[in-house]
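Tokens as discussed.
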């Protein structure tokens, strides 16, 4: 190994952790992410010159590159150590192109975990830069640029400015849109369930559900059928027809891949995919553990592999033997099948060392970090343990008329891998895991304590949560481990979909844009085509396909389709979508949905004779409802009979007159709080370019004061400060606190007699 060396990683946190292990003979620098990219203001790809990309230094990264170049001049060897994936390889290539060093002086190092042994092992076995992996990333970047820069301007012309189309994001929106239409088209079917509570003379009492008629499954479809069956069986007699007992096993789940971690964190903690990856990144790059210093607690978090290294297998098997006992250890390690073409050079996500159990490092971790670390820890240990075993009992109950009811029970008889989770929750291993049944024998008479029929209806397919959307993307082959979180964030940032009660609903914009894209580019935005393109990008990484050939075949088809779309794509701005709503102003015709520069709205079909317009809400069944005007509570100062109402515009909410367009008076949404910075201004509601609400002084640009939290004009009961700030914590506004900006006292809205009315 060289006496003096430079190691370049992409993250400052990662750099600090690695520096601790390597000592004074190494200089460690961070690129802080990508250093080069295609230009922002230009397509940056020369299609006629073999799709040659025109990379430029990202704004603000010139100084970073300058520092890396200066450090490289004094180093005997440069080790490029960004993440072990396509994006990391691209960072390494772009840095290498800037350094312009001989091949023998620049090496690529890969490590799956940030520990002393892993880093030393990587430095002892350096690699050359991986041209194929870089070409795969480059091909993906160029594909996305060609699609985005060619199709987005079409959407600007046909829908409204500022819209974007993405090769993968638009397919994700399509999946959400198609599910929404399945929900709307769903016709519920009635069915009835007949259940009884039975007593055998011994505790416990137990339930039985109608199951068969003369050996055939039976399910009443209406009240007449249900009542007929009920009349036949309700007076009995009832007896035990058959008892079946068997042992069942439940095997542990595979160690975490990226998608599975995102799904489980969403279900367990309601974490978004983006938040999960942010927390995992911190656990991977290094956490300060007191006297031990910074340590990477988990392996690399972007992976689709379930493989575990031999050393890690040996370590966890010893841990299981010592902690739980030999009966919890399988005869040989559990091996899990990796789906499809996973990058098996990576490992599954696991703890880097079993010497750091969650309870030992808890005091050094933030609550969210501890939650995710414990989830990863438990899953890893459990995946190498024996199955849980259950005693399952099935009882068939004979009823009059040839009917049979069925009851099932299950008792945990050996925890196996469940011992990890039960210990974490403080559950005793002898506790029951499901309904239990009394000891029963065939022919035994039973007493029915109650039998009733209840009406039910089949339910539509469920809208996607983050967890189920990630699962769907993975199963359909859309995206890769590194892209799931960004896909989900992007479709929300672009307002193509929104979450209501944690489930995705397409916006009107998402519905319209999806229809346009699918009509004009049926192949490009097809789920199967997108998945096949992912496979081809994998082939480029493996060296089985040339990246320019991939782009060439894509461009041939795409450019022809694009030319047709430019002349034939529908102009949504000129279209009207009919509704079944009568115009409340003229009462002479129906309302239609139109698209304007600020989005979709309802308007009278008689325009310009009738100028009625309104925002609207789309109901769960797909119907449209006029949105009720939210009144400010004061009259318009610019006309005689108008009232002020809240309205939505291109740049966020504003206050307007009910007599618009006759009266065009507008004003900003006021908070009732004065500006503490300039004393002369007032704080008003504004909206950022990304659609996020913030609060700023109305004297801008003279005064640049701004804040994210909503100021509420109520005095702090602790110190008398004239206002408090409304802070939302957790996802979907699950917890709201009022915090005094002066004394930092915390209180709830209820304590101050506030509620929804606090929001202007």
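Sequence:
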């Amino acid at each position: 190994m060289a006496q003096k060396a430079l190691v370049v990683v992409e993250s400052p946190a990662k750099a600090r952790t690695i520096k601790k292990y390597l000592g004074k003979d190494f200089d460690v620098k961070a690129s802080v992410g990508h250093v080069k990219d295609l230009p922002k203001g230009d397509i940056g790809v020369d299609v006629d010159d073999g799709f040659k990309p025109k990379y430029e230094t990202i704004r603000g990264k010139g100084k970073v590159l300058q520092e890396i170049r200066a450090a490289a001049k004094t180093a005997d060897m440069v080790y490029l150590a960004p993440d072990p994936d396509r994006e990391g390889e691209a960072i390494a290539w772009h840095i290498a192109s800037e350094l312009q060093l001989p091949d023998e002086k620049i090496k690529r190092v890969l490590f799956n975990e940030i520990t002393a042994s892993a880093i030393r092992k990587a430095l002892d076995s350096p690699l050359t830069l991986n041209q194929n992996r870089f070409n795969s990333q480059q091909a993906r970047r160029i594909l996305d640029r060609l699609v985005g820069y060619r199709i987005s301007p079409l959407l600007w012309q046909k829908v409204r400015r500022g819209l974007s189309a993405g090769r993968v994001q638009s397919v994700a929106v399509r999946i959400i849109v198609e599910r929404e239409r399945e929900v709307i088209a769903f016709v519920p079917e009635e069915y009835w369930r007949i259940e009884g509570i039975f007593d055998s003379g011994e505790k416990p009492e137990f339930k039985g559900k109608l199951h068969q008629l003369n050996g055939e499954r039976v399910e009443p479809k209406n009240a007449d059928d249900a009542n007929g069956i009920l009349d036949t069986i309700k007076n009995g007699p009832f007896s035990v027809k058959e008892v079946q007992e068997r042992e069942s096993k439940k095997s542990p789940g595979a160690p975490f891949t990226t998608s599975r971690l995102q799904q489980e964190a969403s279900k367990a903690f309601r974490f978004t995919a983006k938040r999960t990856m942010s927390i995992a990144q911190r656990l991977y790059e290094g956490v300060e553990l007191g006297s031990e210093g910074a340590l990477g607690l988990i392996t690399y978090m972007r992976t689709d592999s379930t493989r575990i290294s031999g050393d890690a297998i040996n370590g966890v098997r010893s841990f299981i033997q010592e902690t739980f006992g030999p009966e919890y250890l399988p005869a040989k390690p559990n091996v899990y099948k990796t789906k499809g073409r996973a990058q098996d050079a990576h490992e599954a996500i696991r703890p880097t060392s079993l010497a750091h159990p969650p309870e030992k490092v808890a005091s050094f971790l933030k609550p969210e970090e501890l939650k995710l670390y414990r989830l990863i820890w438990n899953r890893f240990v459990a995946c190498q343990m024996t199955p849980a075993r259950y005693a399952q009992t099935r009882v068939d109950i004979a009823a009059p008329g040839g009917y049979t009811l069925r009851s099932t029970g299950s008792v945990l008889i050996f925890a196996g891998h469940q011992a990890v989770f039960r210990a974490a929750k403080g559950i005793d291993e002898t506790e029951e895991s499901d309904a239990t049944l009394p000891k029963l024998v065939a022919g035994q008479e039973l007493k029915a304590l109650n039998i009733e029929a209840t009406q039910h209806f089949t339910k539509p397919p469920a809208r996607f949560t983050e967890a189920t959307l990630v699962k769907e993307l993975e199963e359909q082959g859309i995206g890769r481990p590194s892209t799931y979180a960004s896909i989900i964030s992007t479709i929300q940032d672009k307002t193509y979909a929104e979450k209501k009660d944690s489930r995705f609903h397409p916006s009107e914009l998402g519905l319209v844009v999806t229809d346009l894209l699918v009509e004009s580019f049926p192949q490009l935005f097809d789920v199967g085509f997108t998945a096949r393109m992912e496979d081809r990008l994998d082939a480029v990484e493996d060296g089985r396909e040339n990246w320019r050939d991939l782009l060439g075949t894509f461009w041939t088809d795409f450019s022809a389709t694009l030319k047709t779309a430019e002349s034939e794509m529908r102009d949504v701005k000129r279209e009207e979508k009919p509704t079944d709503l009568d115009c409340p102003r003229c009462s002479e015709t129906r309302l239609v949905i139109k698209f304007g520069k600020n989005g979709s709205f309802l308007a009278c079909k008689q325009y310009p004779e009738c100028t009625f317009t309104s925002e609207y809400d789309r109901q769960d069944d797909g119907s449209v409802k006029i949105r009720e005007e939210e009144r400010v509570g004061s009259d318009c100062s610019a006309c005689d009979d108008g009232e002020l109402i809240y309205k939505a515009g291109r740049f966020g909410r504003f206050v307007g007159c009910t007599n618009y367009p006759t009266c065009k008076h507008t004003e900003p949404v006021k908070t009732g709080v004065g500006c503490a910075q300039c004393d002369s201004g007032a704080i008003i509601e504004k909206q950022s370019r990304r659609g996020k609400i913030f609060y700023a002084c109305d004297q801008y640009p003279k005064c640049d004061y701004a804040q994210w939290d909503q100021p509420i004009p109520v005095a702090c009961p602790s110190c008398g400060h004239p206002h408090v700030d409304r802070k939302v914590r957790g996802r979907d506004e699950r917890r709201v606190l009022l915090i005094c900006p002066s004394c930092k006292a915390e209180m709830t809205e209820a304590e101050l007699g506030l509620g929804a009315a606090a929001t202007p």
